[in-house]
Design goal:
Number of helices of chain B: 4
Oligomer: heterodimer
Order of helices and strands of chain A: HHHHHH
Shape of chain A: elongated
Number of domains of chain B: 2
Order of helices and strands of chain B: HHHH
Distance between the termini of chain B: 52 Å
CATH architecture of chain A: Up-down Bundle
Largest interface: A-B, 55 and 47 residues
Structural class of chain A: mainly alpha
CATH class of chain A: Mainly Alpha
Strand content of chain B: under 5%
Distance between the termini of chain A: 52 Å
Radius of gyration of chain B: 17 Å
Number of strands of chain A: 0
CATH topology of chain A: Four Helix Bundle (Hemerythrin (Met), subunit A)
CATH superfamily of chain A: Cytochrome c oxidase, subunit III, four-helix bundle
Helix content of chain A: over 70%
Radius of gyration of chain A: 21 Å
Structural class of chain B: mainly alpha
Shape of chain B: flat
Number of helices of chain A: 6
Number of strands of chain B: 0
Chain lengths: 217, 92
């Protein structure tokens, strides 16, 4: 397809005044907002209904580690927006560098979350088990039990789905990087980078809400 | 191809600093035991939504997008309110 044909095919629709790729991504993100609202909303409601099955912040979950992980994801948002700013100026090398940084930081986020899951499972915090009680961090196995089945279920569902979104985002970033390496983006053709950025920032935005509601409240 | 208004370079690093400081403030605030739980939760949610707003407006470039897009993006907000608060009403 010629550049002219591609540009014509991606011209802004008269109604929304944004081009189709971007409009499509925004509509998809709005559906994801409703998806995560279902998960987080369920957690909020269950927590109000059964407060005895949940614990105070820091008792079971590792807040400092996850705060660092939140910082990592925020940094990856900066590198992603820097990548977009670079290609707006036609800077191909800058685009590749910042995309690579985003990929590495995003993968690190997933790695830290996997480490967190392994540590939590090792401490006995697993989703839904018969007669299960969350044992709590660094507590002896014959110590007081805290929490209940709902805590593990809701925690792993919410963070697991978010982690899946991040992982898929990292794979898509790798694809975007591959296209950038082939020189397929330019100051006049940066829609792919922009919509990748929208998805990545959305994933960061969801984590900001999740971290506060799950780890701090 | 990019639509939306032409604009001055956005303050990305300033927004990053604000996000970093707010995250530190949130973590510190969450462990202040003298504050009642309700005010703790309200304060944390306000900070979290402000951080989300910063990401949406500056990093997702909503600030420079047409107002029609803002309208579309705000559609889930009343739906979220209904989903959470109407169901919560069932518990109390």
């Amino acid at each position: 397809m010629t550049t002219q044909a591609m540009t014509a095919g991606r011209a802004p629709m008269p109604g929304m005044k944004v081009y189709n790729l971007k409009l499509g991504m925004w509509i998809f993100l709005l559906s994801e907002v409703m998806f995560f609202t279902g998960l987080i909303g369920s957690y909020v409601i269950l927590r109000f209904a059964h407060p005895e099955q949940f614990t105070e912040p820091g008792v079971v979950l590792n807040v400092p580690l996850t705060a660092f992980n939140t910082f990592l994801l925020i940094c990856s948002s900066v590198t992603m927006v820097k990548a977009y700013a670079a290609i707006q100026q036609g800077d191909q090398q800058g685009l590749k560098n910042w995309l690579l940084a985003t990929i590495l930081i995003g993968a690190s986020f997933v790695g830290v979350q996997v480490y967190e899951y392994i540590a939590l499972v090792g401490e006995g915090f697993v989703p839904m088990a018969e007669a299960y009680h969350a044992v709590g961090r660094h507590m002896p196995h014959d110590g007081p039990v805290v929490g209940g089945q709902l805590y593990g279920s809701t925690f792993y569902t919410m963070t697991g789905f978010h982690g899946t979104h991040v992982s898929i985002g990292v794979l898509c970033l790798c694809f975007t990087y591959w296209r950038a390496a082939k020189g397929e983006y330019s100051a006049d053709n940066l829609g792919g980078v922009e919509i990748m950025g929208l998805y990545w920032h959305f994933v960061d935005l969801v984590w900001i809400i999740l971290f506060t509601i799950v780890y701090l409240i | 191809m990019s639509t939306g208004e032409a604009h001055k370079p956005a303050p990305y690093m300033l927004v990053w600093l604000a996000l970093f400081l707010l995250t530190m403030a949130e973590v510190g605030y969450a462990f202040i035991t003298a504050i009642p739980k309700l005010w703790l939760a309200i304060g944390l949610i306000v900070m979290a939504f402000y951080k989300a707003w910063l990401v949406a407006v500056y990093y997702m470039h909503l600030k420079w997008e047409p107002k029609r897009l803002w309208l579309m993006v705000s559609i889930p907000i009343p739906l979220i309110m209904i989903l959470i608060f109407v169901v919560l009403n069932e518990i109390f």
